[in-house]
From TrEMBL, chains A, B:
Residues 277-610 form the Alpha-L-rhamnosidase six-hairpin glycosidase domain. Residues 53-256 form the Alpha-rhamnosidase-like N-terminal domain. Residues 614-654 form the Alpha-L-rhamnosidase C-terminal domain. This is Alpha-rhamnosidase. It comes from Mucilaginibacter straminoryzae. Gene3D superfamilies: 1.50.10.10, Galactose-binding domain-like, Maltose phosphorylase, domain 3. InterPro entries: 6-hairpin_glycosidase_sf, 6hp_glycosidase-like_sf, Bac_rhamnosid6H, Bac_rhamnosid_C, Rhamnosid-like_N_bacteroidetes.
């Protein structure tokens, strides 16, 4: 391959209608769940891709050019509107300006095309539509009025023309068990830690049945009646050969019973999404280091075709779960496409007939996910291309408001908030209004980016009106806190943590309110405790935002350290230190119902990156950023935070900081007992022992200081 | 098979979500079009079925029962909410009350199930949903609030469990050519009349290429450059064997060129929808009889999986074309499912993003189709099950009204009306408002049937408001007619036939206006003539409604007789007697662009049944009906009109009528110079030589009279 060929080969990609592959692939992925051998699909509506798509691009060529054409679907291929006969595998485009277009029909999978030529190739600069709204008159003349909306093509950068999008699979890698107990007709394997993939039986021979019981815990694998995952297969294999199961499962332990068959070993094909850990964290506390590693592994396992909730079950894309994965991702992989793929899979197609995953809060987390996505990546194109879908989803919400302009659970709406005994979902729940308010702010922001100024004004006004109501309806001066809900138009005096802690890091509170919330809610044991890592995420974030990293460090060691002490090799869906033994594995009324590898368990990645290393964007896409290291009781820490412009590296001990950023303009903020110094940089005093220093990309800074 | 088995076997049927199979099958059908070997799909949006469906039914059994289960898709099967393992092919339902449910995922084709047991079997009494909106709490308890909407399952009465819905094909029957000229490397076959199917080459042998040029006319088949349909296939067949082409085509003539191959004969596999001709018409005029037969054959050819426009092209479902087929169908096949299948295919899924087929008038014909469907069949269940889809389509229309409350063509709207040179589509076209008015009346009627009284009031008010506007904005007292349009808020003085003739049979005019329209529009040669059978349909209907069957008979003989004289074996898309020779075959700027077998050419079936035999429903589903025979210059006529309750038979000469109806209550109206008589019946005089007689089902009447 010559070097110019290499250049264009890197650019050509399979393309399709934007969002369609996400919808199609998430259907495929989410329908892989089984429960004790029965198919268990999602209970919400699944959408479908558009089955007939028009693709085009105009090319200006100096010389004629031939390109190879690969298509998934039944298609025609046109040059300047004139169809070539049949289903051409090559196209010859003459010199000059010419339009290449295709119309592709595919019911079973996404209409997709890959064209591979020197200049004529497919990429996201192609324009696509599902409705071209063209017609002709009786003379054959095409109408000149058209309201066809074209969008830039979607792509996952699949760059191999021979690998059709519908054939995409995650890669696998064979892994040996850490320990296998082999008896006649029976294997019991321990893979040493939570894992995911396909069980492989070596030299399997004979005719009969194999029963496989999987366990995230030993107890689960041994319980052949009540474990969550089991497979039963019939095999007739007179000659010994390796046999790999068809379905992928989550497990650490595998309990295998052979009837009429024998094998001599068991391994597994680990299935994974190849991610690069760009972020890192290491510190003086070995338990925290272990927590970080297990959290990173937990997130890796749940980062698949999309961000999923858990690998044993549900293996579905849940918006509230995914929202936390986005945030962790910005501090570990910084895989932006994984975020947009997940957002588009969740959004599905119009019409909106229910909340995302049927959960009201999960609709709002979808908007919050967009808010953060823009903040961390600065990707305006995504916002512009999908602004209409934000609008139709927001309109669905706004139409469901009651006479007070608030949202409460209507029939068919699941008000989730958290798994917590006795948590009220009745009436106008303050937490839902708070999330709606931030969602409105998000759509207003996106309207501005999309150039829809009038919309922006409307959404901004609605957000600010709702924010006022939030304080006038729910803030209880005596309780120094937001109350949980209004029922029949009257505020209850029930205080819960949710609204209060979110209001802290949404920056909705004044300083007095912040301190009140800290004292009367977050540090108040009378307010019901949170027992899911899901909501602990936000609780600890609020404490960090209030500057209490020292307390949060202790909480991390207690809570996540608690799971490690129980032998966790990945973090759980729920952890209640008050329980003991196999009680920990129960949930949903089932002895092994709990997921022991749940993405929302991995939040220390986010907390350590954002609030200890202290790195976050100040303006979209890290154009400007802040670095505000806080040791929180650690002796030292060092780590890397990925950004779209390269990495930001931070080392911090009690007397020294080392900072380097690949690009962009940042500001370092810190406290010091002594006057700090940095060669080649000016440190500004802000008073009260606070200091600030400008950081420029490409330079290394070494700061001498004295931690308070 | 025992007789009780036979009974249940007749009832069990493949079922799916209502409307989904129509959407899926119409995608498949409409994507079969080719133009000179290039794939030519529809240019409007194609929708898709729901990919994940929940099916259930509650059974009460005296004894346990085993039933066979056939499924298209990946599924689970539950009894009382508990899933059976794997993909069971049988289900055992215990005695007592039990719920059988399935959840089926299928991306490529419609999720469908066939269960075959004595009492436990699938039919349209099953309930289905695409969104069950159920959730659980942390204890595993299912929510008790649910807003899930269940609908009765859809079905096409596919009663063979082994024939999956996705494998459905229309039957074929081999037919010989009427004449084949065989030369070396060349066949020219004439099948004697327009036909449709797959060319079959007998004892094909060798290796090389076959080029096939199809022609509805001889000229087209001989024109290898500009005929509309051509196939080119490569064959390598060392041993002689029959070879059938993969694609079905429309043709009378086939021109075949062999390169490197030989064959000894050619035939074709006629592909057809097996319909029973329940309606019939025969009279003293042989030319009219021939017109009726060719019209019936034309409709038969275009009645396929759905009612299509034409068999050469487009082979698509066009709402305005289909609307006429519905009406003809009520007088020929009375195939009600064919109507609902076509209506549902056209309606597709929400959201509505453009008019049906992108044409504003075609959206309205969809509503008119519902209006007539209810009138002729009395099927309330269909109205109830699809009322929401009527509403969302009507809302799309109502949102597009301008400041005057009228609809004009917005960007992306095709205002079609008819193929006619110089026909204005600008501004507020009166014809579109007229169709909108009847559409509103239709939705109001359906709202009543669906029990939505408040909606009915709203739609009725909107219809009556629009009707007033129609007269105040468009009725021109000097022209004694509706004018064509308003431009910039001012009525033009352009008179066209469309609005005026529809207003006649919509019964929107008073007697004076009716006579004015007849004189100043219909019989006025200054008003531009209509040259498509499409609009001639309505023009002649209006004349019939005005009692001028004599003139219409002459017109039929001239116009349809004119096509027969030119050798037509099916009726055309357009016929202009002023043209000559091969000019007749041209359209859309292409020498053979015209379709010579177009459903809208078959309207004499409807006119002869409704306005000569004079049979039509007075109340929905022929609960009551009218028989008003009009000879219109014929010596005698006889025929059958099908109804949901059986056939109505009419014989009428100038001195005698014979009437029999299978069921229901009808009234016979006629004129007589002399006092008529009928044994066993009372004839009431209405004055002015008009008479009326009650007709009861199951009796034969013989009336002596004397035609005026």
């Amino acid at each position: 391959m010559t070097s110019s060929e290499a250049v264009f080969a890197q650019k050509a990609s399979w393309i399709w209608y934007p969002g369609d592959y996400e919808v199609w692939m998430s259907n495929r992925m989410q329908n892989r769940r089984t429960e004790r051998g029965s198919f268990l699909p999602p209970f919400w509506k699944l959408d479908s891709h558009y089955v007939l798509i028009d693709f085009h691009k105009d090319f200006v060529l100096d010389a004629p050019e031939t390109a190879n054409v690969y298509v998934e679907g039944q298609y025609n291929l046109k040059i300047d509107g004139k169809a070539l006969p049949g289903y051409p595998k090559k196209i010859e485009v003459p010199a000059g300006k010419h339009r290449v277009s295709l119309k592709i029909y595919n019911q079973a999978s996404v209409p997709a095309v890959f064209i591979e030529g020197k200049h004529v190739f497919t990429d996201t600069s192609w324009r696509v539509t599902y409705e071209d709204k063209e017609w002709i008159d009786a003379s054959g003349k095409t109408s000149d009025i058209s309201s066809t909306k074209y969008f830039p093509a979607g792509s996952w950068n699949f760059q191999d023309p021979k690998l059709a999008p519908s054939a995409f699979r995650l890669p696998v890698q064979e892994q040996k068990a850490a320990d296998v107990q082999k008896e006649d007709h029976h294997f019991f394997a321990d893979f040493g830690k939570e894992t995911f993939g396909y069980v492989k039986l070596h030299n399997l021979k004979g005719k009969g049945k194999i029963k496989i019981y999987y366990g995230e815990s030993k107890e689960e694998a041994l319980d052949t009646q009540k474990g969550e995952l089991a497979d039963e297969i019939e095999v007739n294999q007179p000659e010994a050969a390796d046999y790999t199961l068809e379905g992928s499962r989550a497990f650490r332990y595998v309990n295998i019973q052979f009837e009429g068959l024998s094998a001599n070993d068991v391994s597994m094909l680990y299935e994974y999404n190849p991610e690069t850990r760009r972020g890192s964290f290491k510190c003086s506390d070995e338990e925290i280091n272990k927590i970080y590693d297990v959290a990173a592994y937990t997130l890796q396992l749940n980062t698949r075709e999309f961000f999923i909730d858990g690998i044993k079950r549900d293996r579905w894309v849940w918006s509230g779960d995914a929202y936390q994965s986005y945030l962790m991702n910005y501090y570990l992989f910084f895989d932006s496409p994984e975020v947009t793929h997940t957002l588009l899979a969740l959004r599905g197609k119009d019409p909106v007939t229910s909340h995302i995953n049927t959960i009201m809060d999960y609709t709002f987390y979808w908007f919050l996910g967009i808010y953060d996505y823009y903040r961390y990546t600065g990707d305006q194109a995504f916002i512009k291309n999908h602004y209409e879908q934000m609008q139709t989803l927001m309109n669905f919400c706004l139409k469901r408001r009651d006479q007070d302009g608030l949202m409460e659970g209507l029939p068919g709406d699941w008000v989730f908030i958290d798994w917590a005994d006795g948590l009220s979902k009745q009436g106008q729940v303050s937490f839902e209004q708070l999330l709606l308010c931030r969602s409105l702010e998000t759509v207003a922001l996106c309207a501005k980016i999309a150039g829809e100024q009038a919309d922006a004004v409307t959404y901004d006004a609605q957000a600010s009106d709702l924010k006022k109501k939030l304080f006038s309806y729910y803030w209880n001066q005596d309780k120094h806190a937001f109350v949980h809900s209004r029922i029949n138009g009257k505020a209850t005096d029930n205080v819960t943590r949710y609204t209060n802690m979110f209001a802290v890091f949404f920056d909705y509170l004044n300083e007095q309110q912040r301190q009140d919330v800290k004292k009367y809610v977050l540090l108040n044991n009378q307010v019901p405790k949170i027992t899911t890592p899901y909501m602990r995420f936000y609780e600890l974030e609020a404490l960090c935002a209030l500057g209490d990293q020292a307390k949060v460090l202790k909480e991390m060691k207690d809570y996540w350290g608690g799971m490690l002490k129980l032998g966790a090799t990945s973090f759980w869906e729920e952890y209640n230190p008050a329980k003991s033994g196999a009680e920990h594995y129960a949930m949903y009324g089932r002895p092994f119902g709990k997921s022991l590898c749940h993405a929302w368990g991995a939040s220390p990645i986010y907390l350590l990156g954002k609030y200890y290393l202290g790195v976050k964007p100040e303006t979209a896409g890290y154009e400007t950023y802040r670095i505000e290291p806080v040791l929180g009781g650690l002796q030292w820490m060092e780590g890397t935070v990925p950004t779209p412009k390269g990495d930001i590296k931070v080392y911090c001990s009690k007397v020294e900081m080392k900072i380097s950023a690949a690009a962009g303009n940042g500001v370092l903020r810190f406290k010091s007992k002594s006057k700090p110094s940095c060669k080649g940089a000016i440190i500004k005093s802000l008073g009260n022992g606070k200091y600030e220093m400008a950081v420029s990309g490409g330079k290394d800074y070494q700061i001498k200081y004295s931690a308070i």
